[in-house]
Amino acid sequence: MKLRPTYETSATILNRAAAHGSVETFRRLLESGASMRHRGVLALHAAAASHEEDRISVMEYLLGELGVDLEGLDGTDGESSSVSSHDICSTPLHYAMGNSQWVTANWLVGCGADPAAKNQFGMTPEDVFLDHLKS
């Protein structure tokens, strides 16, 4: 069976592949027509938040081979003017900490992720973790 992802389905399939699939799966989706340029593609965020094992290899691929921004915010297309009221605007480190993914969080910090980065609500990754504990 041949994969036929489209630009419109890119966010769903690439985010899911980052969270649950392998580097090879991700690569095949891109070769089959999925686009990293779709506004909803947050593959590094999805991998950082995932409870699946071995997300580091996917994140290494995203950062190293695809040049995904380690400090990229979700909910924007790179322009702060595009932030809407429902966007959280968090980094992958916020996602890892919010999902208690310690190995991933440590790896992201080791790669240069800023533990003091603030999301739209002024929360650091640590704040997100502490808020998660309350709920």
Q: Number of DSSP helices?
A: 7
The percent range for strand residues is: under 5%
Number of strands: 0
Q: What is the general shape?
A: globular
SS-derived structural category: mainly alpha
- The overall pLDDT, averaged over residues, is 87
Question: What is the terminal separation in angstroms?
Answer: 43 Å
Helix content: 40-55%
Element pattern in H and E: HHHHHHH
What is the rounded Rg?
15 Å
Major β-sheet annotation: none
Contiguous low-pLDDT stretches (5 residues minimum) are 76-87
Features:
Ankyrin_rpt-contain_sf; globular; 7 helices; 135 residues; Multifunctional_regulatory; mainly alpha; 46% helix; 0% strand
Describe the fold and architecture.
By secondary structure, the protein is mainly α. The chain is built from seven helices and no strands. The N and C termini lie far apart (43 Å).
